[in-house]
Design brief:
Blueprint: E1 19-24, H1 31-41, H2 44-48, E2 50-56, H3 61-79, E3 85-90, H4 93-108, E4 112-117, H5 122-127, H6 131-143, E5 146-149, H7 152-161, E6 167-169, E7 188-192, H8 201-211, E8 219-223, H9 228-237, E9 244-248, H10 252-261, E10 264-267, H11 276-283, E11 288-291, E12 307-309, H12 314-325, H13 328-346, H14 348-365
Parallel strand pairs: 1-2, 1-3, 3-4, 4-5, 5-6, 7-8, 7-10, 8-9, 10-11, 11-12
Pfam family, one: Glyco_trans_4_4
Domain Glycosyl transferase family: 188-340
Organism: Massilia phyllostachyos
Length: 368
Amino acid sequence: MSRAAAPAASVARPARPRVLMLGTDPGGRGGVATVVSLLRQDGLFEREGVHYVPTHAEGSKTRKIGAFVKGVWGTVACLARRPDVVHAHAASKGSFVRKALLLGLARAAGCKTVFHLHGACFDDFVAGSNGLMRRWIRHTLEKSSTVIALSSRWADFLRGFAPCAKVAVIPNSVPLPPLGEDAVQPGRILFLGQVEPRKGIFELVEALALLRERFPQVELAIGGQGALDEVQRRAAELGVLERVTPLGWITAARKQEELARAAVFCLPSHAEGLPMAMLEAMAAGKAVVVSGVGGIPDAVRDGDNGLVVQPGDVEGLAQQLARILGDGEERLRLGRRARATIEERFESGVVIKQISAVYRQLRDNNIA
């Protein structure tokens, strides 16, 4: 008597993603890549069933086009499995165009959509756009189920430009590293970010020149890529080239080492969203000197948990840096208050709960 045929092995289908998230390659450089990496690392992806599709990658034009084509394919394939929510991390220019197109596909597929704005110069992007583009930007914002702004100031701008948009304020998140004072080098100022005029790096070099006589140990460490050659030329003109240490782009582990060594963190930008580097410095218990632009005032209160300067004010910047470099107790006090601010409002667990609440509301209320 022959044996009954064994049943065919079933092929397990991948679980339906509850959330499709779109953004830049999380292995890349920059603030958005850091945000996405932290959300994954700290549990949002597992908690909410997030499937991530990169739609942008650094590199040549060919590589960028290839990443977008692959991202479109990945998005369409995931939309066929009907996720509840499509969440796009977007900025200006090409980033907006890519995400707006994909969010349009998501809406056509019947998904709820989240437009998560990160761009530091989104207001300039809107102002510089022609009428057709402005209508597309407004349409994208108002047709999104939720628009996430990083700060109250950005939320006010978005509500003013797109009055029908449903805007929620959720800041970037940051982990809390262990604290330690042993590695601090007196006089070491740390800058982290894209090395470009918008970040105030040239004013920072000029402030360094004003500080050199009063603080013989003062030096500026620059972590980031961009106009380093121009910065070094300007430092040479001011006679402080030997006090400038270009670090280039640094890894996450190296970043923590540099933060530990810093006496003060400085980011005197002209425009910002809510800079991750500043939040990471505050989480590390560092006194920060920053300009009051973009979403920064939502995190830093002058004289309480950091010091604030006007963008472009070199003398004011030098005075605020001197206040910290010349007073160890003030440096420690500001650093403690900065750390407490992160614990209360920007720590990863706090922010992930806020994002989860957005997803839950969209699912429960069936908001399209």
